[in-house]
């Protein structure tokens, strides 16, 4: 058992620490640094089909859906194609409007989640293009979509998903790049994006090296019953995923919120017992998020910031900070998510929770 965990106490930590390697596996052979694009043969779309795509619909559940939200931002940002994320369970019962010029991306670590599978069947039935972003080779979703991109993250044992999430995000960035290069994105910009995607393993290594510091910060957040996670733009889905991770393994109630929405209700809950964890690294919306943090402080909420290394001015606003390396916002989602995975892990460990097998949860939900 200890050998299977590679010397770590839990599968979750093993999987968190594997991420530089799993991202290398996910991206291997899929990035063309010269042409500034990605090679995703599994998508199996003709040049005509690629250009004709008018909309992307991304479906998934839980962590996989949160990854999809980051994909939505990247696809619209890079390629200028409208993209939408829908909870797989909603999609299937809504009689969705999809057709042959829509590409449905079904995201699933296991490839067996009942709601995601049902969404795939619905989309296939309606004649849309459907591709799977799946980790488990040969799983039902991988088979039924017939086209797709395997994550190559290796077996994920911990119920709380970590390495599958960062691989999903990496694949979505590569899809966004590919769609963009067939449309409005220049080769020079494409080359830049390839370089940034190639840096992801290093960005993760940087965060993993701060593990002890994150463990220290976590000590201050073990005795709360509730937390808010806030972010804007690309960092909003990271807030959602951070909140999901802490709920799953530490049983602290947490909500991921858009920082701007906080004042439309949730701010009423803030006091010294409600910490706010803010994704406040450099990038679009940072100044606005920081002013939301000031509003939280004015209500006595303890504030923890995920900030860019060296950004002292922002760090000074917070009670505690976790740093991530400087990089564009579309890749910063990954080091930020990894930092919050470690934070959740340490909070749960200090609370004496069962890390790999949280109560009431299953690794794969094959019922509706
Ligand atoms: C369960 C797991 C989650 C996972 C979700 C979707 O709820 O506990 O960690 O994100 O299912 O699973 P999938 O295999 O489709 O990604």
Automatic annotation (TrEMBL):
GO cellular component, one term: cytosol
Enzyme active site: 363
Source superkingdom: Bacteria
Alphabetical keyword list: Aminotransferase, Cytoplasm, Glutamine amidotransferase, Repeat, Transferase
UniProt entry tagged with the keyword Metal-binding: no
Domain (SIS): residue spans on this chain: 46-185, 217-358
TM segment ranges: none
Main subcellular location: cytoplasm
MF (Gene Ontology): carbohydrate derivative binding; glutamine-fructose-6-phosphate transaminase (isomerizing) activity
Subcellular location(s) per record: Cytoplasm
Listed GO biological process terms: amino sugar biosynthetic process; carbohydrate metabolic process; fructose 6-phosphate metabolic process; protein N-linked glycosylation; UDP-N-acetylglucosamine metabolic process
Reaction catalysed by this enzyme: D-fructose 6-phosphate + L-glutamine = D-glucosamine 6-phosphate + L-glutamate
EC number: 2.6.1.16
The protein's assembly and partners: Homodimer.
The protein's role, per its UniProt record: Catalyzes the first step in hexosamine metabolism, converting fructose-6P into glucosamine-6P using glutamine as a nitrogen source.
Protein name: Glutamine--fructose-6-phosphate aminotransferase [isomerizing]
Lineage, highest ranks first: Bacteria, Pseudomonadati, Verrucomicrobiota, Verrucomicrobiia, Verrucomicrobiales
Residues of the full protein shown: 246 to 613 of 613
